[in-house]
Amino acid sequence: SDLPEYRNLHEHCIGDLAVTPDDWETAATRLLDFNTRKQVAVRQRMNVLQNWSIDVRAEEWRDVFTVQGN
């Protein structure tokens, strides 16, 4: 669905954004193929490791806890 949370994820290359029934059908049909699911999984895992892992975001979390601790 075209909701703000999903749009934000999609803008960060996480997942597909399905707006119309045809979009849903296309996305679901694509995922029926094992090789497509595997490629998507590998790409998404790399995205998470490179952009969203705790190692990458550690300073942001430190800042959150520092502000909370004051």
Run of helices and strands: HHHH
Q: On the 0-100 scale, what is the average pLDDT? A: 88
Number of helical runs?
A: 4
Derived structural class: mainly alpha
Strand content: under 5%
The biggest sheet, with number of strands, parallel, antiparallel or mixed sense and barrel status, is: none
- What Rg, in angstroms, do the CA atoms define? 16 Å
Name the descriptors.
single chain, 70 residues, mainly alpha
Briefly say what this structure is:
The chain is built from four helices and no strands. It has helices spanning 4-11, 21-30, 34-51, 54-69.
Describe the protein.
- The protein has 70 residues and is mainly alpha-helical.
- It contains four helices and no strands.
- The protein is elongated and about 45 Å long.
- The model has no long low-confidence stretch (mean pLDDT 88).
Layout of helices and strands:
Blueprint: H1 4-11, H2 21-30, H3 34-51, H4 54-69
